[in-house]
Amino acid sequence: MPSISHAGAVHVEYNHFPVGELWEPGFERKDDRPNFQTDEAVIVVPGRIIVRSRMQEDFASVALALSDRRDQAPGPEWALIASVTYRPVYKGRMAAFDTTNGPAGSADEALEAFGCLVPPGEAAISLEPSRVYDVQVWARGRSYAPERCNAVGPEAEASDPTAYVVVFSPCGTQEAPAPAAHESRRERLARTRGKLPLNMR
Q1: Residues of the chain below pLDDT 70
Q2: pTM of the prediction?
Q3: CA within 13 Å, CB half, 134
Q4: Each residue of 8-41: b (16+ CB within 10 Å) or e?
Q5: CB atoms within 10 A of CB 147
Q6: What is the pLDDT of residues 67-123, one digit of tens each?
Q7: Cα–Cα distances in Å, from 84 out to 123, 130, 166, 186?
Q8: Dihedral, CA atoms, 174, 179, 180, 186, nearest 10 degrees?
Q9: Are 126 and 170 in contact (CB under 8 A)?
Q10: What's the Rg (C-alpha) of the chain?
Q11: DSSP for the chain, written as a single string
């Protein structure tokens, strides 16, 4: 049985949402921009896994899981949309995020996955930073998203809401990321500007 987070709710905007690693003080921030000029359903950049939706704007339930099995679906109604590799860049604390508003809030109701009801709450899980992970992104209701977008009234209410389960499975090792050495203000200015300001020379 996988270790699974609570079920969060993400606000999908610009047809994507991130599952990202929480930045830790002392570490160099990883702010690589994903290349959206691709047909891939999932994009990986250092510190983030970007899940692309079939809808421009949506609300979706999301849970994160940690499992030793890479072949276990959350249930018969779930479809695998991508399998990617993720390497922790900070201390391995992963969370689902709204596209532009920070960490996801709690889902309105429980999410059924891996034979149990996942209660609403924070969609977050801790990875071991010295491991490398195979990440499988499973979706439910995704194939109906365009139809739901165009539906109105009772038809819209009856359609399946989109839900995702992101499963992390250890598949290798790496040197655990370490915080950068302490840098004084003088050293930081010299590094970022190429030389010290006149009043510090």
Answers
A1: 143-160, 181-183, 197-198, 200-201
A2: 0.83
A3: 11
A4: bbbbbeebbbbbbbebeeebeeeeeebeeeeeeb
A5: 12
A6: 998 888 999 999 999 999 999 999 999 999 998 888 899 999 999 999 999 999 999
A7: 19, 17, 11, 41
A8: 170
A9: no
A10: 19
A11: --EE--BEEEEEBTTEEEEEEPP-TTSPP--PPP--SS--SEEEETTEEEEEPSSSSEEEEEEEEE-S-SS--S-TT-EEEEEEEE--SSS-EEEEB-SSSSB-EE-SS-EEETTEEE-BS--EEE--TTEEEEEEEEEESGGGHHHHHH--THHHHHSPPPEEEEEEEEEEE-PPP-PPPP--HHHHHHHHHSS--GGG-
Give 126's strand partners.
Answer: 93
The whole-angstrom distance between residue 44's C-alpha and the CA centroid of its chain comes to 9
Residues 6+ apart with CB under 8 A from 181: none
Place of tokens 């004084």: 184
Nearest to 176 by CA among 94, 95, 91, 93: 91
Cβ–Cβ < 8 Å for 83, 110:
no
pLDDT at 118: 96
Give the residue from 43, 136, 148, 162 showing the smallest Cα distance to 81: 136
Rounded Cα gap, residues 71 and 114, in angstroms:
12
